[in-house]
Design a protein that fits this description.
This is Putative ADP-glucose pyrophosphorylase large subunit. InterPro entries: ADP-Glc_PPase (IPR011831), Trimer_LpxA-like_sf (IPR011004). Belongs to the bacterial/plant glucose-1-phosphate adenylyltransferase family. One of its GO terms (molecular function) is glucose-1-phosphate adenylyltransferase activity. The chain has 1 helix and 14 strands; from the N terminus they run βββββββββαβββββ. The protein has one domain: Hexapeptide repeat proteins (UDP N-Acetylglucosamine Acyltransferase, domain 1, 3 Solenoid). The model has no long low-confidence stretch (mean pLDDT 94). The relative contact order is 0.16. The protein is globular, with a radius of gyration of 15 Å. A 5-stranded parallel beta sheet has the order 2-5-8-11-14, with no helix packed on it. Strands 3-6-9-12 form a 4-stranded parallel beta sheet, with no helix packed on it. Strands 1-4-7 form a 3-stranded parallel beta sheet, with no helix packed on it. The protein is mainly beta and 113 residues long.
Length: 113
């Protein structure tokens, strides 16, 4: 509607890096890192990180406010902590994932009726 414009802030993010992923009816935002994951009927917000084997279906992932470097991620994993994003082999269905969420590896989150 021209009478009520929608304003947003400009973002100067790099393009999303996609490595061997499958998408179906998905919206992927800027600055994401997606590795061998499947995104089906979902929205992936800016700066999101989806690791190997992640399945995101019928969900909205809000993204992140900042990046973690590879060395920060390695340090967190060595300490047994979880970095921002979704870890290896995690399955998520029918969910809304808030900003800066930390979801570990081999997790299953399914919102059933």
């Amino acid at each position: 509607d021209p009478k009520t414009p929608f304003y947003t802030s400009p973002r100067f993010l790099p393009p999303t890096k996609i490595d061997n992923c499958k998408f179906k009816d998905a919206i992927i935002s800027h600055g994401c890192f997606l590795r061998e994951c499947t995104v089906d009927h979902s929205i992936v917000g800016e700066r999101s990180r989806l690791d190997y084997g992640v399945e995101l279906k019928d969900s909205v992932m809000m993204g992140a406010d900042y990046y973690q470097t590879e060395s920060e991620i390695a340090s967190l994993l060595a300490e047994g902590k979880v970095p921002i994003g979704i870890g290896w082999n995690t399955k998520i269905r029918n969910c809304i994932i808030d900003k800066n969420a930390k979801i570990g590896k081999d997790v299953v989150i399914v919102n059933k009726d």
